[in-house]
Amino acid sequence: MGIKTLKIVCLGLLGTGVLFVAGCGGSNINVARLSDADRAVVEQVVKKLEPMIAQRRSQGDIAALSFEELYLPLNGEERAFLRQFQNLDTRLLNITIPYQGIPSKTPDLVVIKGQMMKLAENKTQEIPPQFLPRDVYNAYMAMTAAMKKDIGRMLYVESGYRSAAYQLYLFVFYLKNHDYSIRETARFAAWPGYSEHGQPIHQAVDFVNERGIDGQNDPAAFEALEEYQWMLRHAERYGFKLSYPHGSKMAFEPWHWHYSSVSQ
Ligand SMILES: [Zn+2]
Prior knowledge:
Elements: H1 3-15, H2 36-59, H3 67-71, H4 76-86, E1 109-112, E2 116-118, E3 124-126, E4 130-133, H5 134-151, E5 155-159, H6 164-174, H7 182-185, E6 204-209, H8 219-223, H9 226-234, E7 240-242, E8 256-259
Antiparallel strand pairs: 1-4, 2-3, 5-6, 6-8, 7-8
Helix pairs in contact: 1-2
Bound molecules: zinc ion.
């Protein structure tokens, strides 16, 4: 179905005198639940993007995906829909995180590879490649060296820069898990521009310790780490600040820090 169904829906609606029509390049996307026509385009877009996404994942550079690269495999109709989707009025989505902004171009990124965690029972697990803007990477390396010297431990980067384009793809991909409700999906997936992970001037880093403790299921476990306690005392000197400490409006996230240059 897909395109054929969509065209019929468009013509039908145009026939009733509606000026701008959902799914036909208008701006009437229903954020509570996508229309069947819009849902068909979403399925088509996800399917079309699959090979490119799989390839970028295997290359290990998916987090740096640009909007140009995201739109490239799509045809005109799919591009128009995705652009319209991307430009939705976010006030309709009840997003609680403040807008962070989208960089106009991909920042100068350093890739971090070979971070090997030592889990229980002598198992090891390598973290997939992560990206950090160069200044953040340098600050992270300096901080890590100091931590290692002080307490003999360090933290790895579990998640660094994730582009707004990749965030857009993930959002569209996850729609199917939430009955094609954009508003519902927005409760679980970040809308492009609303994540500190996509904003290099305020770059977020999710840390994990060498034994794989990241606190994401149990914040208290990360909070109890000597590495975390060291961060509370020293991280600011290297430009890192806790984004969501105890008592903020957001849930406490001891693993999630952001960087801003010390001179600012
Ligand atoms: Zn985070």
